[in-house]
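2024-03-11 09:14:02 DEBUG pipeline.ingest accepted 1 chain
2024-03-11 09:14:02 DEBUG pipeline.ingest length=153
2024-03-11 09:14:03 DEBUG pipeline.predict start
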Amino acid sequence: MEIAIIRNDDAWPEHLDALAERAVQQALKQAKAKVKGAAELSIVLTDDAEQQGLNRQWRGKDSSTNVLSFPQIEPFGPVRGILGDITLARETVEREALDQATGFDDHFTHLVVHGFLHILGYDHNTDAEALQMESLETQILASLGVQDPYGDA
């Protein structure tokens, strides 16, 4: 699987590329999703202004947000072809990491996992969906050495 890291904001640290790829690979493994042939995912590292525009255009919310996912495959369908895009807003991710007293790298890893699970078809619109998705996120993050973002501090 090819993972394209696209920097629309040069302030993102270079070492995050490896963290993002590791997070996606571990999410594939833990979600028991099998890549069927060529597959491509784009992770766009952007800023709050661009993320706000995307959020306004696609979700009708005129504010930035930490992560957006734009799946191009059917939920829980075959993992092949162009999977979709994940966008992350640097300032929001930095602010949240500080507010939550979480390391930036760990928060970034969590958001990549979260965004990729949306690409695969997971969601959190209902309590049952949220419980399933958050449990899987926690399992994936634990395998990456990242503390449970939903647990008590």
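2024-03-11 09:14:41 DEBUG pipeline.report The CA atoms of residues 56 and 62 lie 5 Å apart.
2024-03-11 09:14:41 DEBUG pipeline.predict end
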